[in-house]
Fold:
Amino acid sequence: MRSQGSCHIGKSKGGHRWILFTDLDGTLLDRETYEPGPSLEALKGCREADIPVIFCSSKTGAEIRLYHERFASHPGVPFIAENGGGVFFPAGEWARPPGGEMSGDFWKVTLGARREDVLGVLTEAAEIAGLHIRTFAGSTPEEIARRTRLPLEEARLAGRRDFDETFWIEGHADPERLAVFREAVEKQGMRLTRGGRCLHVHGASDKGKAVRYVSQRYEETSGSVHTAAVGDAANDLPMLRAVDRAYLVNRADGSHDPDIPRDGKIRFLPGIGPDGFLQAVSDLLAYRRHVQA
Ligand SMILES: [Mg+2]
Structure:
């Protein structure tokens, strides 16, 4: 197995090793501007403490790759795409992970379902339910941009999906037809979820499953690790549940997502988006110093 090198693991003198998972939109990145702002200082702190920061987002691999090139804490860190549908490992730094296949400069690991299989299930379910759907796969980047209100270039990257199909229903969809549709999707072991402006069908994966998969890869190469995660919304909950130390940042309106339970296991931070991310990293670094003292 190729050596991972010490650059990927935050191992302190006391033997405590940390890896940090983070959501992007509304957490590491400002929800409106998509800029990291105060998160840059936090990423610098992680780099200096040798804690790899693993991006874990609903965005596609093609989209996250741009942020990875600009902001990665370490060049070799993997990233998790499409809400945990799959993981990308830089191939120059990692030996082939279980289930990995070459995709450009990365090992791509499918944890949910492949997009082509999702498309087959989606098309059949729509036929059974008598629904007229439009998929990203069947749309031009211009149509995706109009539908999602993303800039054209981002719509192009958002359309390059690997583990999920995004779609919308044309015309009126009555609840009965939708129920038939959902049942047909779930019968095939897949899931239907509602996003901001579109619907999604994807495999049985989530951010938590992907976090466990990546943590295992680090443990295989570098021994036992401690894990932390930062998020802002309900799709982050499986990730927050899968780690040793979890943080929730505030939303732009100054409130925490009501779907995240206040059960004492997740630390609720006052900072909004990147300000909260910086607070999470400051707390993690202080805690790490404390436990090794
Ligand atoms: Mg988010």
